[in-house]
Amino acid sequence: MLNELISVIIPAYNEEKIIANSIDSVEKCLLSLKRPFEIIIINDASNDKTLEILTEEGKNKPYIRV
């Protein structure tokens, strides 16, 4: 059971001010579990820079899916 993938789904709408910190917090918690994981962020047509931030975050972190 320790090899099962953990999936965390985060909905986002106009979260440019907090989304990077939210991802960092979730990532830190999941890394401490020492189990495979993915973070799936659902961007609900944000009209701020949320999508740009998510795209940048996901470039170097293959476990982040937008």
Approximate shape: elongated
Overall mean pLDDT stands at 94
Percent of sequence in beta strands: 15-25%
Strand order, biggest sheet?
Answer: 1-2-3
Q: What is the overall number of helices?
A: 2
Helix residue percentage: 25-40%
Q: Which H/E pattern describes the elements? A: EHEHE
| Spans of at least 5 consecutive residues with low confidence | none
Oligomer designation? single chain
Could you give a quick summary of the protein structure above?
With 66 residues, the chain is of the alpha/beta class. The protein has helices at 19-33, 50-59, and strands at residues 6-12, 37-43, 64-65.
List the helices and strands and how they pair.
Blueprint: E1 6-12, H1 19-33, E2 37-43, H2 50-59, E3 64-65
Parallel strand pairs: 1-2, 2-3
Describe the structure.
With 66 residues, this protein is α/β, with parallel strands linked by helices. The protein is 38% helix and 24% strand. It is built from 2 helices and 3 strands; from the N terminus they run βαβαβ. It has a 3-stranded parallel β-sheet, with helices on one face.
Characteristic terms for this protein:
single chain, 66 residues, alpha/beta, three-stranded parallel beta sheet, 38% helix
